[in-house]
Amino acid sequence: MSDTLLLVLDLAGIAVFASTGALVGVRKELDVFGVTVLALITGLGGGVLRDVLIGSVPPAALEDWRYLVVPAATALAVFVFHPAFGRMERQIMVLDAVGLALFCVTGAVKADEAGLNVLAASVLGTLSGIGGGMLRDVVAGRVPVIFRGELYATPAFAGAFVATVVHHEGYSEWWYALAFAVCLGWRLIALKRGWTAPLPPGIDHA
Amino acid sequence: MSDTLLLVLDLAGIAVFASTGALVGVRKELDVFGVTVLALITGLGGGVLRDVLIGSVPPAALEDWRYLVVPAATALAVFVFHPAFGRMERQIMVLDAVGLALFCVTGAVKADEAGLNVLAASVLGTLSGIGGGMLRDVVAGRVPVIFRGELYATPAFAGAFVATVVHHEGYSEWWYALAFAVCLGWRLIALKRGWTAPLPPGIDHA
Amino acid sequence: MSDTLLLVLDLAGIAVFASTGALVGVRKELDVFGVTVLALITGLGGGVLRDVLIGSVPPAALEDWRYLVVPAATALAVFVFHPAFGRMERQIMVLDAVGLALFCVTGAVKADEAGLNVLAASVLGTLSGIGGGMLRDVVAGRVPVIFRGELYATPAFAGAFVATVVHHEGYSEWWYALAFAVCLGWRLIALKRGWTAPLPPGIDHA
């Protein structure tokens, strides 16, 4: 895939993630700066965590100014037009699934390139996809929503694992599309059907 | 500026930040260890985050024992004499503004020296100034106060941006005083007049 | 001590820590993935923070797949059999004290090997022991329990300090047993007698 296309996709994914962070900030009644920081954390947090853990510092997000401008501009747009963004939440969740699938694949490849074992690279690929949302929720003072029954992280791990194996074994790059499709398809079906991850047995989840 | 003066200023800023963390810990009824950890996190957190992100590890805070002793001793003093410190909260906020201005300038310079672009260095300078307070609030279980309408981060970013440009363009070191003054003046006027950052439009912030 | 024995002890400590994280997750009614992530964070968080701060990346936890499999398998066991684990909480706290003592000693040695000063190495040794539990509580949305009067961190610091001095001065390895015993003994006596750390004076802790 061309580098330009990858950069555009990457920035688009960051913008979508950032918009979910900005919406949480608006609902928490944060000020314009808090909304922007929450958007930056959500859009860039997963990749930054991965880069710090593999020792690739400064992280990519700090090497190219576009990685900062895109989520900041997204935050300002959400801040001003939040009622419109709020109404598009369903569509944002679909785009968010696309971003998730993209970041899991690219994150897993980058972690495998750093020489990690297959399991660790899959975990870091998953972290690239879900880390921003986790940090968003912790900073905003709520237990990460992805831990509370919504099926979000399992598709992420599946996609990251497939991508890691493809890279580790040196298979054709076309197989990355499979990794991407596994994560995206699983996540979208879960969204549509309201699938949830298993809750602890024997507790009354009324 | 002489290195000794800079070290003294740095330690003084850390002590002031640490005292705000210790006060939050006392009010949360943490034990003496919790108060100390919260003080260390508040005093050193911003610089440590910056150093980890630019790959300058071990962080400066771990290279010189004074960076650990000063906030720890501050925490113990606040723990014992917290009613007196609590009554000085107004004065502490003024000193906190001085520490903020100092850390934004020195943080931005260090980030620019690491070869980041101007925007990223400004962001890391801001993080150096506000990161400790953010971590303090997250660990203490509250949404960071700097996200809730108080005008704190905007002056920080302004000061960091000016300092980054001064360093990046190689202007005379005297101009750092301007960066410092922009942050400090803006913050103090905001404190005095009760200026707040804009909240999301169309929400009833009663 | 042989490397194999150290690895087995290390993994055992991680499993115990992970089980406390998984139990918190079950009580917060997280899904199976949330429980697993909380277990991974609790089991590995302290060591990962230490490794990132001394620049030893990728962290040891990502270099050997067993460091990921052991806490994940522990999490699944707790998820399924949580009533049984819940009833063993007292025994788990004793094992947790053993893990704490072990991690403080090994963490302090690793930090001292990285060339830090004695105080900083002691702090990082303490962080190796208590960092996972701190992160667990922050992610689970509660103020870290180790900050709220339970005597946990003081024994950790004592053990880490002794271990750092032993390593720094090049004393015989047998003295590590003393560091281990100081932390473990202090913690176990505190558990048994209900010792607590001092709370701020003059506040009614009713």
Automatic annotation (TrEMBL), chains A, B, C:
InterPro entries: Gly_transporter. Residues 8-82, 94-167 form the Glycine transporter domain. It is a multi-pass membrane protein. The chain crosses the membrane at residues 6-25, 32-53, 65-85, 92-109, 115-139, 151-168, 174-191. The keyword Translocase does not apply. Its main location: membrane. It holds the Pfam family Gly_transporter. It is found in: Cell membrane. It comes from the Bacteria. One of its GO terms (cellular component) is plasma membrane. The keyword Transmembrane applies. Keywords: Cell membrane, Membrane, Transmembrane, Transmembrane helix. Belongs to the UPF0126 family. This is Trimeric intracellular cation channel family protein.
